[in-house]
Design a protein that fits this description.
- By secondary structure, the protein is mainly α.
- Helix content is 56%, strand content 5%.
- The protein has one domain (5-151): Arc Repressor Mutant, subunit A (Orthogonal Bundle), CATH 1.10.10.10.
- The chain has helices at 5-20, 29-36, 40-52, 77-85, 106-121, 126-129, 133-151, and strands spanning 56-59, 65-68.
- The protein has a two-stranded antiparallel sheet.
- The longest helix is centred in the C-terminal third of the chain and has 19 residues, at 133-151.
- The mean pLDDT is 89.
């Protein structure tokens, strides 16, 4: 299994906001795009989805920016991935003509594997994955970005 780029970006946005937003300094789409080398147009779509899910608050305008609105202590990584990845199967058994379709157990095995993956990801909160060196690095990146923005 491989996560989509959409989910990868969504997780990065939440991780970044969990630590950079802790100091309540404004975080912009431009900042996140620069830090992770993500095209702004794609990032805007992800941010919109995260906002509709209620995990971030996006404010437009001159003094706008992004804020984490979910509690990092309770936001489960599995819940985020379920939302961003959607509830799709790993293979499309309906869209193919397969001679084994009436007798195949692969579909059930893959579904069980997906449930196990999401259950395992539910064992981690946003706070846990942003703790320690990851979070410290994000804080440094954010401060450096703010300092360079002030000089510009």
């Amino acid at each position: 299994m491989r996560l989509t780029r959409f989910s990868d970006i969504g997780l990065r946005v939440l991780i970044y906001l969990a630590r950079a937003d802790a100091g309540r300094a404004q975080v912009t789409v431009a900042e996140i795009a620069t830090q992770f080398d993500i095209p702004v147009n794609h990032l805007v779509k992800v941010v919109g989805h995260l906002s509709r899910a209620g995990w971030i608050k996006a404010t437009r305008g001159r003094n706008g920016g992004l804020r984490l609105s979910a509690d990092p202590l309770t936001l489960k990584v599995g819940a985020v991935l379920r939302e961003l990845e959607g509830d799709t199967e790993l293979i499309d058994c309906e869209g193919t003509s397969c001679i084994l379709s009436d007798h195949c157990r692969l579909r059930g095995a893959l579904a069980a594997g997906m449930r196990a993956f999401y259950d395992a990801m539910d064992g981690f909160t946003l706070a846990q994955i942003t703790d320690g060196p990851t979070g410290e690095h994000i804080v440094r990146l954010h401060r450096r970005y703010l300092d360079s923005a002030m000089l510009a």
